[in-house]
Write a structure and sequence with these properties.
Strand order of the largest sheet: 1-2-7-6-5-4-3
Number of domains: 1
Order of helices and strands: EEHHHEEEEEH
Radius of gyration: 16 Å
Helix content: 25-40%
Structural class: alpha+beta
Shape: globular
Strand content: 25-35%
Length: 180
């Protein structure tokens, strides 16, 4: 039987998440959820920072391949985003710009000439009828501006799912940060 604390499940975008209504017709919209331990922090920014700082090495290698492929198209690379994030750490999580913070959610993302995307790290409790407990849901919505954006999303979508699921499972195995 699979351990529910490391099981990542595809779900609908949470209705109360700010990204759920962000783009009228997104080119990509997905969400994945995992149960949080009862003693995990309730701070979505801390949960996001933890998850992104503990990613598997293969994700960094995949980003380097992505950067090499997209640089010729004039798209923002992760290296370029990391450089700008260093000077404004309080406005970024990893190399993602912070767009919004609430008590339950942090919305991250970036805009580029081919697409805009937002990533939500949302934590909340479920009713006993829904399995009870607290859950972390990572949602992504993307709005493409042109053929390059639509082609890019088509090519990276399978990798995107693997990265999100892996990042959530790895953070759970390491152990989410606890409430102070």
């Amino acid at each position: 039987m699979e351990n529910p604390t490391v099981s990542v499940t595809a779900v609908a975008l949470p209705a109360s998440s700010h990204v759920a209504q962000m783009y009228a017709h997104p080119n990509l919209a997905d969400a994945y959820t995992i149960r949080l331990p009862d003693n995990a922090t309730t701070d979505p920014e801390l949960l996001a920072r933890f998850m992104f700082s503990h990613q598997a090495a293969w994700i960094g290698k995949l980003l380097r391949v992505r950067d090499a492929l997209v640089a010729g198209f004039g798209l923002k690379t992760s290296k370029r985003l990391e450089e700008s994030a260093r000077s404004e750490r309080d406005k970024h999580v990893s190399f993602f710009r912070i767009y919004e913070r609430t008590v339950d959610e942090i919305v991250l993302g970036e805009d580029d000439k081919h697409l805009d995307f937002r990533l939500s790290v949302f934590q909340g409790a479920r009713e006993e009828a829904e399995g009870g407990g607290r859950y972390l849901t990572v949602s992504t919505v993307v709005r493409c501006h042109n053929l390059l954006g639509r082609t890019y999303i088509l090519l990276i979508a399978p990798f995107h799912e693997m990265v999100v699921r892996s990042s959530m499972r790895r953070a759970a195995r390491i152990g989410w940060p606890t409430a102070s």
